Amino acid sequence: MDVFYAYTYSTAAWFGIQAVPLMMFPKLIITALSTEARKPTVLEEYLCRSLAFTLFTLAILIVLLTGTIPLSSSLSESEITADPSDPKAPYAVPTLTVTATFHAITAFYSYMQYTRHGQIGFALSEIGSGFLASMGCWCLVFGTEKGRISKRTGADKRTSGWPFKNEEADKKKGRKRL
Q1: SS3 helix, strand, coil % of the chain, rounded to 5?
Q2: Residue 107: half-sphere exposure toward Cβ, Cα within 13 Å
Q3: How far is residue 167 from each of residues 112, 154, 157, 176, 177, measured CA to CA in Å?
Q4: What's the rounded Cα separation, in Å, for the pair 164 and 178?
Q5: pTM exceeding 0.70
Q6: Smallest Cα–Cα separation from 21: which of 9, 30, 8, 10?
Q7: How far is residue 37's CA from residue 158's CA, in Å, rounded to a whole number?
Q8: Element (H, E) at 55
């Protein structure tokens, strides 16, 4: 589950990286993104700082809701998993789904803005969000349930013989197939 922890912390760090300039330098961000040279309004500065607070809050919520930082005082031997039946982190999979979807939408939007305006900030946002979206999708597909791997053979137990027959296994077991 190391990839799940890496995704959780990377998402929180990505939101923090986006929030710090919005909080510290809203005038610089507004001036850099505007097409004409003018002084930013008070409303624009307020919205930049409000977005920064929102990103900080989301970063903290993601780390807490996925169970990366345990909220109970008892120590347990097992680690937190992204399994939906894990009682230690019941909101891990929904949080993972929402954040992966958010990163995918943000990557698409940043790509569209980059192709339209050609600003490097949109390209950086596209790369960061695209990487996190692919990492989140990987965690959703491969990290949300335990594998059913045989201890004896090392093969996945969920495989079937359709549409191809496994004649070697049938010979060893002495079965005949039609």
Answers
A1: 60, 0, 35
A2: 17
A3: 51, 19, 17, 9, 9
A4: 13
A5: yes
A6: 30
A7: 62
A8: helix 42-65
Asked if 3 and 138 touch (Cβ cutoff 8 Å), the reply is yes
One-letter amino acid at 57 equals T
As a whole number, mean pLDDT of residues 129-143 equals 91
C-beta of residue 43 within 8 angstroms of C-beta of residue 36: no
Strand partners, 149: 156
Residue 25 has a pLDDT of: 92
Residue 177 DSSP symbol? -
- Alpha carbon distance 118, 138 (integer Å): 30
pLDDT in tens, 9-33: 999 999 999 999 999 998 888 887 7
With tokens 């079937």, the residue in question is 160
Tokens of 171: 């010979």
Closest CA to 58 of 92, 14, 90, 23: 14
Q: Strand, coil or helix: what is 78?
A: coil
Q: 1 near 80, Cβ under 8 Å?
A: yes
Q: What is the pLDDT of residues 139-177, one digit of tens each?
A: 888 876 665 666 676 666 666 666 666 666 666 666 665
Give pLDDT, residue 143: 76
Tokens of 44: 């624009």
92: which residues sit within 8 A by CB, 6+ positions away? 4, 65, 66, 67, 80, 81, 82, 86
